[in-house]
Amino acid sequence: MIQRSYYLHQIHDAFEQHSVCAILGPRQCGKTTLAKFYVQELKEVHIFDLENPQDLAMLESPSLTLPPLNGTIVIDEIQRRPDLFPYLRFLVDNSDKKFLILGSASQDLIQQSSETLAGRIAYIELPPFLLNEVNDMHKHWVLGGFPKSFLAPSYSQSEKWRINYIQNFLERDLSMMGIQTVPSNMRRLWSMLAHYHGQIANVSELSRSLDMTDKTIKRYMDILESCFMIRQLKPWFENISKRQVKRPKLYIRDSGILHTLLGVSDNAILTHPKCGASWEGYALENLVHSYDNDLYEFYFWATEKGAELDLLVTKGSQRIGYEFKYSEAPKITKSMNIAMKDLKLDHLSIITPGEKSYTLGNNINVTSLKEAINRSFRADHET
What we know:
- The protein is of the alpha/beta class.
- The protein has helices at 5-17, 31-39, 53-58, 62-65, 85-94, 106-117, 137-143, 147-150, 155-176, 183-195, 203-210, 214-226, 255-262, 275-290, 334-343, 369-381; strands at residues 20-24, 45-49, 72-76, 98-103, 121-125, 199-200, 230-233, 249-252, 297-302, 308-315, 318-324, 347-352, 358-361, 364-368.
- The strands form three sheets. It has a six-stranded mixed sheet, with helices on both faces. Strands 2-3-4-1-5 form a five-stranded parallel sheet, with helices on both faces.
- Helix 10 packs across helix 13.
- The chain is globular.
- The model has no long low-confidence stretch (mean pLDDT 93).
- This is AAA+ ATPase domain-containing protein.
């Protein structure tokens, strides 16, 4: 069992300053397991799982159930009862109770809680397993980071789990979160988005292909993003004369889910046309999570004439560029030189799956993904 020590420390630190800590992440990424690890050494704990009908019924009258309880109160799948937030505020302001709340839908949950719990709540995004938590990069890339996928006894069982996960998400989980969709249409869109992975999704093109309105396409994409299934990476605009791309770049956040949506089994991704794009999304997702997301912002940059940068990381005036190449010996390209000059990058790293890191040119180097993650993690998470 992977205890995820870094996130346990994050919960501890959050409760040092706040009475409420929200762990947000996709369904079955390990939120409940993490919460159980955290509370196992606490003296008094009360756990409510809102998928359990009995627990849900107990919180139908929170003013009767919660006041007598002391210590830490865990509420799992909080998005099923957003009406609890105002009462949690009352309890926080009039007692020393601590609340650890777990949720699977980010945007709605944050909006609902921030309005009533402003200044009282800290947020932690929990992704599926990351590369720095496991010891097999290739397996992690192929199977993805969802615990039951990565820890499955075999590749075939991992694949079966992911197929069922996608089906359950569409047919059960979304409706349980109060999100109304047409499951068959959402599945068609999600599969189509997998083919746009690492590219700019053309909403009008998707609308024509799927016979759905632009409005529905955008709404469904926002739902997938709010449930941590896709990432829409924002474009960066620089004050230069060149015409720049102004639409977001799309990624399926978990590589294992991506491969299932593409119909790719086991190691077949290595010969698939989306191999390079899959590696790019996998490396980007792991690298983004190695930074302190409260301090840094993340973009991509591209011009209409083809110059581009896969990832731009900014903090104040600091600008770090990343290119992701599934290659053992990448070269400096014209596009990289343009990005260095136009964006005034402090540094540009070309991230590869290899083990070697070396300098290619002035402030441009080749870096293994593991080394890049370790560098950013050490810089921003260790004291």
